[in-house]
Design brief:
- There is one protein chain.
- The strands form six sheets. The chain has an eight-stranded mixed β-sheet. An eight-stranded mixed β-sheet has the order 18-17-16-15-21-20-19-24, covered by helices on one side.
- Among the domains are: 4-99, PH-domain like; 111-187, PH-domain like (Roll); 200-325, PH-domain like (Roll); 339-419, Pleckstrin-homology domain (PH domain)/Phosphotyrosine-binding domain (PTB) (PH-domain like, Roll).
- The protein is of the alpha+beta class.
- The chain starts with a strand and ends with a helix.
- The chain contains 15 helices and 31 strands.
Length: 704
């Protein structure tokens, strides 16, 4: 007999919806892990009171009842698995797995039986339907009538909203059967009623999701958010996880909810509060010390003081009875425990945790390591200074966190590698296989990181209070100087080089040489722009190249294709033509090949005639055009030489008067004028008509 039984694709019925997950039965008890939320239900073997096997809509189901009245339903079993389960229950839990079928007579009268958390409507000994009383949101009574209203479920396509029971009057004196029915329902129903005073109230807290400022009233069983426009009541049973995330001088306190809170069609799966680290508060609980000690067992005291975020997180941890998740050992390039990035259209922060990733704040995303299929580091789409971090889950959902600075790559890659996550395109290497327990809660850890952090902060606070005159605070401030980093960056990209090095004449000479190089580069590029002119000058009288067989056929068939397919686009027409040409027979293609061959022969004949007569005419026209251009250049050269001669003579007499140009060193002048002289010399060589007197003037100006 096996010590454990495991079942995949089992569905747990919770508030009208079927949650997919994995079920494991062992000697210690029953464990079910929700695939969507990662929530784990653990039922100890000693708590099991009854097991029922019955036929349901999804095949066969298992209903487990505990000694404290809780009911758990699991569907999706096959009929052949009954013997295996029955034997396992008998051997390890000492329970008989009873077979009970539902009544399908279709009668609407019977008896109502209350047992634990269930309302069962029976006909004879067989149940017709069962209602978990935790699903009831409201119970109202009328004359001989009780109405039950239920919580709406977003995951279910169809939700049952209301059921009415007719309760016949009885002859018993002093007992109203309608009131007795309603009291039995309300004693187990999940009806949120603000009875009595709140344990404590936090005023005007800044809330990012849902946005606004809210008063948070802490009640024994639920949390009440009271804003100017909306109110939300959040039962503690809907809280999945708590996160405390630091960022510079602020703290994010994130509460994960399932099911989410609703406002119209909007669903909020996360409640995000933003605190300043410097904000302190003194808190007094609305309970006496004995009640505080009895209920919270030392986790809270009647009078507490400290940072506002610490007080809120401490109270929530005690009431919800869940650990607070904080960032682990990850540190980014800047020393922060998060990475600045963008998700969808908004910018936010990605926190690598010990067992997952969380992104805040719009929209908030929490991804557990055990649901990740692989991650990928992709090149940024807009710039090479950033990269994208992609995560794909086992369900096929993809999350892309973009615009991450390139400096964060090494830290993030090392973190992913250390957590043994599968990296795309690298494969799952040896020793990289994930070692997560399939049935472990994603929040479980060997130590409480939040508790350790609170202890460390308490020690630091005590040291600062005892030794206020010590300069340790100033030293920590001096260790990070943003001004120095800004100066380094400005110096690297500073265009004014004389500000950093202006002591020597050699430096100034080097600075002055730089514009000369730029001028040369510009002059070298000029002839490249003129190159296309020769390409543009095509002879319009030259014969046109012959078309291929396909193009000849397409020109002949284009109108026919258009008439056969009215309204066809150009791209679709070309596709259709390609398909028709491909499907054409060899004989028809040969006909168009012959036409193409005839066209090629005609082209060759025309080219021979053109080369004898037409090309000589075109060459004469080209020569005349070149002559005109050379004459224009010659006239421009004369005008420029007169201007340079007058300028050089005036500069020898009074160099300080030349206000239009900045001072140029000898190297700049000689290189500039020599290059101009060379270009002029080339022009004179091309013309073949430059006078010796003019060339002597050129050499004189270059030597000056």
């Amino acid at each position: 007999m096996a010590d454990t039984l495991e079942f995949n694709e089992i569905y747990q019925e919770v508030k009208g919806s079927m949650n997919d997950g994995r079920l494991r039965l062992s000697r210690q008890g029953v464990i079910f892990k929700n695939s969507k939320t990662g929530k784990v239900d653990n039922i100890q073997a000693s708590e099991l009171a009854e097991g029922v096997w019955r036929r349901v809509a999804l095949g066969h189901g298992l209903k487990l009842l505990t000694k404290n009245g809780h009911v758990y339903k699991y569907d999706g079993f096959r009929e052949s698995e009954f013997d295996k389960l029955s034997e396992f229950f008998r051997a390890h839990y000492r329970l008989e797995l009873a077979e009970k079928d539902l009544c399908v007579k279709g009668w609407n009268w019977g008896t109502v039986r209350f047992g634990g958390q269930l309302l069962s409507f029976d006909i004879g000994e067989q149940p017709v339907f069962e209602i978990p009383l935790s699903n009831v949101s409201q119970c109202t009574t009328g004359k001989n009538e009780v109405t039950l209203e239920f919580h709406q479920n977003d995951d279910a396509e169809v939700s049952l909203m209301e059921v009415r029971f007719y309760v016949p009057p009885t002859q018993e004196d002093g007992v109203d059967p309608v009131e007795a029915f309603a009291q039995n329902v309300l004693s187990k129903a999940d009806v949120i009623q603000a009875t009595g005073d709140a344990i404590c109230i936090f005023r005007e807290l800044q809330c990012l999701t849902p946005r606004g400022r809210y008063d948070i009233r802490i009640y024994p069983t639920f949390l009440h958010l009271h804003g100017k426009t909306f109110d939300y009541k959040i039962p503690y049973t809907t809280v999945l996880r708590l996160f405390l995330l630091p960022h510079k001088g602020q703290m994010f306190f994130v509460i994960s909810l399932d099911p989410p809170i609703k406002q119209g069609q909007t669903r909020y799966h996360f409640l995000i509060l933003l605190f300043s680290k410097d904000e302190d508060i003194s808190l007094t609980l609305n309970m006496n010390e004995e009640e505080v000690e009895k209920r919270f067992e030392g986790r809270l005291t009647k009078n507490m003081s400290g940072s506002l975020y610490e007080m809120v997180s401490r109270v929530m941890k005690a009431l919800v009875n869940r650990k607070i998740t904080v960032p682990g050992n990850f540190q980014g390039h800047s020393g922060a425990q998060c990475i600045t990035c963008s998700y969808k259209a908004s910018s936010g922060l990605l926190y690598p945790l010990e067992r997952g990733f969380i992104y805040v704040h719009k929209p908030p995303v929490h991804i557990r390591f055990d649901e990740i299929s692989f991650v990928n580091f992709a090149r940024g789409t807009t710039t090479t200074r950033s990269f994208d971090f992609e995560i794909e889950t086992k369900q096929g959902t993809q999350y892309t966190f973009s615009s991450i600075e390139r400096e964060e790559y090494g830290k993030l890659f090392d973190f992913v590698n250390a957590k043994k996550l599968n990296i795309k395109n690298r494969g799952l290497k040896e020793g990289m296989k994930q070692s997560y327990d399939e049935y472990a809660d994603s929040d479980e850890d060997q130590h409480d990181a939040y508790l350790e952090r609170m202890k460390e902060e308490g020690k630091i606070r005590e040291e600062n209070a005892n030794d206020s005159s010590d300069g340790s605070g100033e030293e920590t401030d001096e260790s990070f100087n943003p001004g120095e980093e800004d100066d380094d960056v400005a110096e690297e990209f500073d265009s004014n080089a004389s500000a950093s090095s202006s002591s020597g004449d050699g430096d100034s000479d080097r600075d002055e040489k730089k514009p000369a190089k730029k001028a040369k580069i510009v002059k070298d590029r000029k002839p490249r722009k003129k190159q296309p002119e020769s390409k543009k000058g095509k002879d319009p009288n030259a014969p046109k190249r012959p078309m291929s067989a396909y193009m000849l056929w397409l020109n002949a068939s284009r109108e026919k294709i258009k008439s056969d397919h009215p309204g066809i686009s150009i791209t679709d027409l070309s596709k259709k033509a390609g398909e028709l040409w491909k499907a054409m027979s060899k004989e028809k293609k040969e006909e168009w090949d012959r036409k193409a061959e005839d066209a090629r022969r005609d082209y060759e004949r025309a080219m021979k005639e053109y080369s004898v007569g037409g090309r000589s005419e075109s060459s004469r026209m080209e020569r005349s055009k070149k002559k005109k251009k050379k004459q224009e250049k010659q006239m421009k050269g004369k005008a420029e030489k007169k201007g340079t001669f007058s300028k050089s003579s005036s500069s020898t007499k009074s160099p300080a008067k030349n206000s239009s140009e900045t001072f140029k060193s000898k190297e700049f002048v000689s290189s500039d004028e020599s290059s101009s002289g060379e270009s002029k010399k080339e022009d004179s060589d091309d013309e073949g008509a430059a006078s010796p007197a003019r060339s002597s003037e050129d050499s004189a100006s270059a030597s000056d």
